[in-house]
Amino acid sequence: MHNNFTIYNSLTRRKELFEPLRPPFAGLYVCGPTVYSNAHLGHARPAITFDVLYRYLLHLGYKVRYVRNITDVGHLENDSDEGEDKILKAARAEHLEPMEVVQNYMNTFHRNMDQLNTLKPSIEPRASGHIIEQQEFIRKILKKGYAYESNGSVYFDVKKYSEKYDYGKLSGRVLEELQANTRSLAGQDEKRSPFDFSLWKKATPGHIMKWPSEWSNGFPGWHMECSAMSVKYLGEVFDIHGGGMDLMFPHHECEIAQSTAALGKESVKYWMHNNMITINGQKMARSIGNFITLDQLFSGEHPLLEQPYSPMTIRFFILQAHYRSTVDFSNEALKSAEKGLERLFKGLETLEKTGPSEKSTLDISALEKKCFDAIDDDLNTPVLLSYLFEGVKYINQVNDGKEKLSAADLGSLKKLFKTFVFDILGLKAAPVSVTDEKLTGELMKIIIDLRQDARERKDFATSDKIRNELKEAGIILKDRKDGAEWERG
Predict the structure, then answer these.
(1) What is the pLDDT of residues 199-252, one digit of tens each?
(2) 341 near 425, Cβ under 8 Å?
(3) Is the previous residue joined to 382 through a cis bond, with omega within 30 degrees of 0?
């Protein structure tokens, strides 16, 4: 098995060789969305990042159990255990049942994920479907002495935990700094310390989403769902936990504390975090209100959009940057991604029409090695794309008669592009109607014949006019000895 794959571990802040705990099995847990509104461009970033990781692990021969959770209860308006449940707030605003809100936005999320060509996870558990598991996890933490009950709610005792373990090791937060910077919030007098976090919250009067427990009728804290569900489906110790960088603190930090307190050991071997998509330098987020939904991107119906962009353009746009780098939204960047994607698939079209020579003048094995080295280096998709465009350059040179490829190397190049463009990066060409393609070909034949007739009559003004106007329309003519060829520009 090819196994030179290194990933950047957010916990150790260095690249590490991926060594699954139970080869050839790999457990991957990714924090999915809180489903109270439509998915936006920011949600596409982790979906595509960890889809590429999932695809590459499968390509390497691992049997991967990919778990992506759905948060449908317990995520309050702020991260300090205060405010209204986000699902309940949306339900009141839309005059729907909370689970109706969840289902509506889950349907949209799944449709958007299909449009972006992300593979479905192995398991997609919902927090509301695992209340019993979360309650059992809370009991373990209470039994170990790292939690306490207060007025029907249960809180994690961060100070007690920090006497033995390192709270803040993932995010680099220091407990003393947290204590100094934590502001007092209403309703937090039932906590021993303001930086303690809820494992179980007693429901207030009128709160719809609640379940019975020995502590109160209430609901689990936001952080609890991932600890309970990851262990349930991947075991007490599993390989990779992923999510957006904004989840590093407090969500993932609290997960580490919960799991370590309950189990006496950390559950996650590697932590991976993708960076944010920004707009005018500011994080794109629903809480800020500066987001563009995926449906708006695909339709072009948003004041900030100059045109609609295809799902594959969005996917290519995100892959152009390393997952740990920020990506700033702009129409110019999306248009550039659109052109780059067209150029890549134009190269693939040319490759399919390219014939072999007796021997090669290009080293395809060296190109293949560079592609694998790039993806092995912490999923370096922008460098990988640069090598794929080097391959497109090869294709054009062979097509123009400047270089040659043997039948074996031509087959290797086709396999290389299939492996990386389709199987690993998950890109796909836009479907073209067979009827439309046939009609386009027939019309282009008529135009080329008319231009050739003008050239034979030495009417070069008409010949040049046809070429220039086709170019403006996105059609490039290439004159050959045996006639002209056309391609989309």
Answers:
(1) 999 999 888 889 999 999 999 999 999 999 999 999 999 999 999 999 999 999
(2) no
(3) no
